[in-house]
Amino acid sequence: MKKIVVLTTGGTIASKPSAATGLYTSGAMTAEELIDTKKLGLDVAVEMETVFQIPSNGMTFERLMVLRSRIIERLRDDDVLGVVVTHGTDTLEESSYFLDLTLDTIRPVVMTGSQRTPGEEGTDAYTNIRDAIVVAASPDCRDLGVLLLFNEGIYAAKHVKKMHAFNIHAFTAFGFGMLGYVDKGRAYLEQRPVRREFLPVEEGDFPRVEIVKASLGSDGAMVDHAVAAGAAGLVLEGLGRGHVTPEFVDSVSRAVDAGVRVVLTTTCEMGRVHPVYDFAGGVKDLQSRGVIAGHDYDSRKARIKLTVLLAAGIESPAALQQAFLN
């Protein structure tokens, strides 16, 4: 019998109120507590499994590898049409993109979560779960990479970003938009990603990659600290087209000379890193020092990608630069 598998990892979508604190305990609900298959109202069988019961600020690369293994294991069953993963929203975009890079499957893997806990008035937990199952079961949603379903919108993992701290319209894809939407139990696809990317990774330690953000008057002290702490990679979140202050550049040069791979992104929500100016700390200056242009990746997605690239053994600056053009 054809079916959808739902894997739960915790987050707001699986939270319960705490009598002791008056706050919510994130991830307190198991998959069986969260999902009532009789109330879904869908014509597809659903199996469920609890993988983690954690808030999403507790997600790590090691836990993502466990989740990845469970997805791969479930997809070995030919009767599984697709997999849904419930997850906290704080790191949902990062986990989604990690899985997008490291899973090689044409069957849908759909991530979702909620902004309101299951017991709150107007909760979005159950509608998001139901709609994510609809997307995972839809033939139109195959071979799109990992998808994120939220508030009826279908997004590509590469571009989706959390834009609101508490509103149920919490995610968007700046400059790219939705791939489609769900309405009344059916998925409607309007566009498809042009490129797919798969990077094989094995079990083991992931390299340390940190984000350093440039701002008015800032210097390179945080770059120096990250290198001293053992970072194998750095993502610089630059200003505008990808600029840092002149006080950054010596620290960046020292990092590159020490073998640290440095990728430059922009703090802007749309647009790509590109050399336009000839001043110290500009894109051209940073590239001359061995910095890799991060194209149109935001800093969090660039960190995920650089971590996975390095873990996959792709380390040469030329290969990394080509990878960030994809």
In brief, what are we looking at here?
With 326 residues, this protein is α/β, with parallel strands linked by helices. Helix content is 28%, strand content 22%. Helix 4 packs parallel to helix 9 and helix 6 runs parallel beside helix 7.
Report what the structure shows:
This protein is of the alpha/beta class and 326 residues long. It has two domains: 3-189, L-asparaginase, N-terminal domain (Rossmann fold); 209-323, Rossmann fold (3-Layer(aba) Sandwich), CATH 3.40.50.40. The chain has ten helices and 16 strands. The chain has helices spanning 31-34, 37-40, 61-75, 92-102, 125-137, 221-228, 249-257, 283-288, 299-311, 317-323; strands at residues 3-10, 16-17, 24-25, 45-54, 80-86, 109-112, 147-150, 153-156, 161-162, 171-172, 180-183, 186-189, 209-213, 233-238, 261-266, 292-293. An eight-stranded mixed sheet has the order 4-1-5-6-7-8-11-12, with helices on both faces. Strands 13-14-15-16 form a four-stranded parallel sheet, with helices on both faces. It is elongated, with a radius of gyration of 20 Å. The protein starts with a strand and ends with a helix. 45% of the residues are buried. The mean pLDDT is 96.
CATH superfamily of the largest domain: L-asparaginase, N-terminal domain
| Classification by helices and strands | alpha/beta
Q: Hey, roughly how much beta strand do the residues contain?
A: 15-25%
Low-confidence stretches: none
Overall domain count: 2
What are the secondary-structure elements, in order, as H or E? Answer: EEEHHEHEHEHEEEEEEEHEHEHEHH
Q: What is the radius of gyration computed over CA atoms, rounded to a whole number of angstroms?
A: 20 Å
* Total number of helices: 10
Distance between the termini: 38 Å
